[in-house]
């Protein structure tokens, strides 16, 4: 009996040890790697509600470890992640710590020289979801540019990408550069923010990148992560991505933001509830209404019929083009499916800005098959993947 108990104890200990060796730990957990770089420095931290170490926010973790956080910079949705999409956020003082919070999604998108006068080093930690139109990658680039322009070393605490196990979609073309796309990458780029930062720097995409400033960029890597990992986010990265279902559907259904249909904002399942009052032959219905993080959007108060994607397995390794085609075909008035801009130019359509070109809109109108659409993406994706390989920090999926 004692022998059996001893064996069970050994098996339990081994199981715990194996689990510890395989649990994915974001860069913020690797304190031994970056605390020496922050010691006795005035730190400017770019972050939001997703920067957690265990069950404690990074701000509290660093303060407890004796790090001087001089000020905090925040992206879209603010420090607590509750502001609406596109809502301008003002500067404030954190009541708990007395630290100044500077919004970089309002009057400005990057810290200026005055913001950085009393800062020695910059630190970045935000959870991304791996799509070109999710604005945190733009915020990262603006932050990098400000760091370089003001000769401030930057440390990025990397986090796993929940959509980092594939690459898909058309490459952004220059006429369609906007707030939902800056650089020539596909919709799903299959990189962590640390890897993407290396690409932005290495490909010369930074503003005023010709300067010879001696600037330091350090990436603190994730532990036990690679591009075959299917990482589960525990904290909603923004109000309208409340859970993994929405996050995994987002690369596909965010395109519906460029249409007159509801993408589910104003419900508990944004980007998983899709519909419109005029959709025929659909049993599922929902009515979007104002809620925190989605106080205004399309079709509020109107009963919409359409798709409940919480009941459909999210795409595994590609954008679900077939469902976008089905949504377009199901809409009765095809000529009013896409939101019409004030000036009828291809580059002004929000749908085209999300896609990165005008081709998909025309392909949907022409009834092109998924195979033909994917064939048009293939050359750009092949070229991107070659460039992407140069900047990967983790084992790839192919």
What does this structure look like?
The chain has 2 domains: 194 residues, Uncharacterised protein PF07075, DUF1343 (Rossmann fold); 124 residues, no CATH class. Helices cover 30% and strands 14% of the residues. It is built from 11 helices and 14 strands. The strands form 4 sheets. The chain has a 7-stranded mixed β-sheet, sandwiched between helices. Strands 12-14-13 form a 3-stranded antiparallel β-sheet, with no helix packed on it. Strands 2-3 form a two-stranded antiparallel ribbon. The radius of gyration is 22 Å and the shape is globular. The relative contact order is 0.13.
Quick recap:
The protein has 398 residues and is of the alpha/beta class.
Topology:
Blueprint: H1 2-22, H2 31-38, E1 42-47, E2 52-53, E3 56-57, H3 58-64, E4 68-74, E5 92-93, E6 100-103, H4 113-116, E7 121-125, H5 136-149, E8 154-157, E9 168-171, E10 186-188, H6 193-202, E11 217-220, H7 244-253, E12 273-276, E13 285-286, E14 304-308, H8 321-330, H9 350-355, H10 359-366, H11 370-389
Parallel strand pairs: 1-4, 1-7, 4-6, 7-8, 8-11
Antiparallel strand pairs: 2-3, 5-6, 9-10, 12-14, 13-14
